[in-house]
Amino acid sequence: MQFLNPLLLLGSLALIGPILVHLVRRETSRQVLFSSLMFIRRTPRASLRKQRLRNPLLLLLRLAALLLLVLAFARPLLTDSDALGLSGSGGRSLVLLLDDSFSMRFGDRFEQARTQVRSILQGTSPGDRVQLVRFSDSTRLLNRPEANPREVLSLIDALEPGFSGTDYGPALRLADQLLAGTADRSPEIHWVSDFQESGWKPGSQGISIDERVDLHAYPVASTPGTNVSIGQVTIQPEDRSSSRVTITAETRSQNLRQALELVLALEINEQPAGSRTVRLGVDDRRVVRFESVAVPRGESHARLDLQFEDSLPEDNFAYSSLSPPPRLKTLLLGGNRRDHYYLSRALTASPDSPIDLEVAEPGRIPPARLSSYAAVILNNSGPLPAETASALVRFVESGGGMLLISGPRTHADSLSELEEILPARLLKRYRAAGQGEDQLIGRLQKRHPIFNHFEEVHFSYLMATPFTDFHLVESLAGSQVLADLQNGSPLLLERGLGNGRVLLFTSSLDRNWNQLPLKSVFLPFCQEMVKYAARFQPSPRAYRVGERVALESLNPQWSKALAKLSRSNRSYAHTWTVVAPSGREIPLDDLLGGDSSSLQLTEPGFYRFRVQETEHLLAANLDPRESDLSSPNPEPLLAQLPRESRQAGAAPRQPTSLDGRHALENRQHLWWYLVLTACLALLVESLLANRYSNGVPE
């Protein structure tokens, strides 16, 4: 045992006080009247040395309380002289990275990982700090650095692998941050994983580790795993009016001993709907099709089952929704049929387009009908009736989306009634006088939702498109330029008004003012503008385990139920339930907190969401990359990690033996137990003293 403040042990001299008090204390003598003392022999007074101690139990309690308080102020700590002593070491700071992704469920990989972590913890010294981080595609720190290694061992026993994918980037970044403030200690990262290649995501390229950190890798995948799985699944409707679809599934095998014929079974609404036989080689991939599958009306769902027993059975299943995807009801106003030719075909020609387009003249649409549309397009529109213009303003202010496209009939006066919602004020028309006077796109926001899924070749097609005619405009407050031309004139602008959104394209979408309709990017460009204006978020057939999904997108009745509940005193629990695929009901308190309520998907299968009398299913599938069980040697991966010096400027302070003792004492907190014991001793002493003072015999 050592003490942080050994000089305070001199306070133990205070123990003399209670002893002296007990020795010199005298009881009050009683006077007894007697007739004569002449015949009584005189005896000498007893000396102090012959005085007996009275009430020894009280004395021991008082001495013990004082001694415990002295020891508490001296700050004792239990230490191993071999590990700490006076060697001058401040101890180590260890971060243990434990992979709990889906691939760790294969065989005994996770049990090997737990055994390895236990071995690392058993090799720690009393002055070491240990922090345990579990990671998959996200990270979670499980303990404070002051925790005792025994506490970390208890955490290990409670861990189980999940179903998420693997991403090494966030785990390494967190470990580097945890070790950033340990200049007086020896930093170490102990990384326990199966080291899948798929764990290196594109965002991991910018990660670097402090050059002082010792990085140790512990691979737990000693042999390649044998596995069959279902990969990507696509569902393609035969046409918009048909209730039949084609389901395509990719089947994969890895490290089979021999080629096998397996059965891929299809279930729709938990009823058998067909099967296909697929022959998979030792390391093989095959595509299986279920053509012209009839989909029942209403909400339907499908499950694919690749019937084979292996050590990773969860990836033999795939789940998907068969319900018709949401449609984007859009109204196209203005111009004539020839003006709309290219635009209308771009919005409706592709079979996977979600846009339902209705074409009408501005004066023939009752203003009350506008609320039934998600987006309105004004294409080459002339002057608008006052009633229609007012209805369009209300439509945008109430959350609708609008796309305005210029043309020969469009001028400042024709849009004057809409100026309060426009992104810009039209000034005059620009016309190229001759060859070389046309304008190319000079700049556009490639990361904007309208453009962010385009490839570089698509951007080159856009940038090379000449614009001979367009409107010069003056941007208004609250607007943003998404693309402009070489002369600096805006080409595409946006403006948000509450939940509504307005886009303005200052040229036309036909061949009179530019050649954009002849480009391959014309179709996706037009569709993305309408989707963005309407804030359209299509629900995928299936989500990926690990994703977060906004609650508002889980059930069409969510907004109505929320509005109804906000006007009543009813509890959410009576009208909204969420059940995970395993049957576990998810507490609503975990979902409805925060600024944007969302649910993180942690299991594969169907999540069930009930709002009052309606039910909605959401499919969640595993990351197909997790089924690739090949695990390369981690040493090349470690060698490629960039190292940086985090100690710019002054050299780090050299650790001392006092640093190690301080860290160890902070973890043990023995002084707290000593003070508590002293208080208990004083309490017992006061009770006994009160008893003796009342004349109770000893």
Quick description:
The protein has 13 helices and 32 strands. The protein has about 700 residues and is α/β, with parallel strands linked by helices.
Please explain how this structure is put together.
The radius of gyration is 39 Å and the shape is elongated. It has an eight-stranded mixed beta sheet, with helices on both faces. A five-stranded mixed beta sheet has the order 5-4-3-6-8, sandwiched between helices. The protein has a four-stranded antiparallel beta sheet with strand order 12-11-14-15, with no helix packed on it. The chain is 22% helix and 28% strand. The protein has 13 helices and 32 strands. The longest helix has 24 residues. With 698 residues, the protein is of the alpha/beta class. It folds into five domains: 118 residues, no CATH class; 147 residues, 3-Layer(aba) Sandwich (Rossmann fold); 89 residues, Immunoglobulin-like (Sandwich), CATH 2.60.40; 206 residues, Class I glutamine amidotransferase (GATase) domain (Rossmann fold); 79 residues. About 4% of the residues have low confidence.
Keywords, separated by commas or semicolons:
698 residues; alpha/beta; Rossmann fold; Immunoglobulin-like; eight-stranded mixed sheet
Biggest pleated sheet: 8 strands, mixed
**What separation lies between the terminal Cα atoms?**
38 Å
Count of structural domains? 5
User: Segments where pLDDT lies below 50 for 5+ residues?
Assistant: 81-89, 565-573, 648-659
| CATH C-level of the largest domain | Alpha Beta
The backbone outline, from C-alpha atoms, is: elongated
Please count the beta strands (DSSP E, at least 2 residues each).
32
- The CATH H-level superfamily of the largest domain is Class I glutamine amidotransferase (GATase) domain
The radius of gyration over CA amounts to 39 Å
The portion of residues forming beta strands comes to: 25-35%
Helix content: 10-25%
Average pLDDT, all residues: 82
Question: What's the architecture of the largest domain, going by CATH?
Answer: 3-Layer(aba) Sandwich
Class computed from helices, strands and strand pairing:
alpha/beta
Number of helices: 13
